[in-house]
Design brief:
mainly alpha
Length: 121
């Protein structure tokens, strides 16, 4: 598991997303109970612009570990990219409920809340 995860992460860092997805697919095939394998592949899919498969892998991640704040944060990013602000806000809030000190998530949430509620005059 560790070797497949490492190889997938290295390929992702090198920008070779197809190879990263292959390594992470082998990982989830061999260790379907390992939440981080699903999350890593979700990240590679996201970076490759494949939002549907990324969401599916995030669902697997959260089914295995419902406190995976990284998966929730990633879900928020996808919904934000898809301009589904309400869903993005919900995902970011869930991530912050688990890990309240993530500044990037706080900033994203503030930005979306201001966008959806506006500013008082």
């Amino acid at each position: 598991m560790d070797l497949l995860l490492k190889r997938g992460q290295e390929a992702m860092e090198a920008g070779d997303l197809a190879t990263a997805i292959e390594h992470f697919t082998a990982l989830v095939d061999h260790a379907p109970e390992f939440a981080e394998g699903w999350n890593a592949r979700a990240t590679a899919y996201f970076l490759n612009g494949q939002f549907g498969p990324s969401i599916a892998d995030i669902q697997h991640t959260l089914a295995l570990n419902d406190h995976h704040f990284g998966a929730l944060s990633g879900l928020g990013q996808i919904f934000e990219a898809l301009e589904q602000e309400d869903k993005a806000i919900a995902a970011y809030r869930a991530a912050l409920a688990i890990h309240p000190h993530q500044e990037g998530i706080k900033q994203a949430l503030e930005r979306l809340e201001q966008k959806t509620t506006g500013t008082e005059l």
